[in-house]
């Protein structure tokens, strides 16, 4: 509970790690006992904010959300975009993940 309070405070100030952590809790519903209900849309929004601030885990979570339609409609182009960002950061397996997603894209 104490960690969630700190993450909320820091997330309100735009701290990327805390935004991603709150997104993770909303995604899995592991924070329901401390007031963080399972909510895929909220999870995506927190992770997107984290990603847009450059946090690698937020970028990965957003890519996965777009790839699988978690909290947002499936969008392979945006999934590939975020995997591409991770690829440029030399994130392990990002290139493979991006190519897999692009295999689903139809002209």
Q: Mind sketching the topology for me?
A:
Elements: H1 2-12, H2 16-28, H3 40-52, H4 56-68, H5 76-88, H6 94-102
Helix pairs in contact: 1-2, 2-3, 3-4, 4-5, 5-6
Structure description:
With 107 residues, this protein is an all-alpha fold. Helix content is 67%, strand content 0%. It has six helices and no strands. It has helices at 2-12, 16-28, 40-52, 56-68, 76-88, 94-102. Helix 3 (40-52) packs across helix 4 (56-68), helix 4 packs antiparallel against helix 5 and helix 5 packs antiparallel against helix 6 (94-102). The chain is globular. The N and C termini lie far apart (48 Å). The mean pLDDT is 93.
Succession of helices and strands: HHHHHH
Distance between the termini: 48 Å
User: Beta-sheet strand percentage?
Assistant: under 5%
Which structural category fits the helices and strands?
A: mainly alpha
Q: pLDDT average, as an integer? A: 93
What's the total number of strands?
A: 0
The percent range for helix content is 55-70%
- Given as residue ranges, the uncertain stretches (5+ residues, pLDDT < 50) are none
- Summed up, the helix count is 6
Specify Rg, calculated over alpha carbons.
14 Å
The largest sheet is: none
Shape: globular
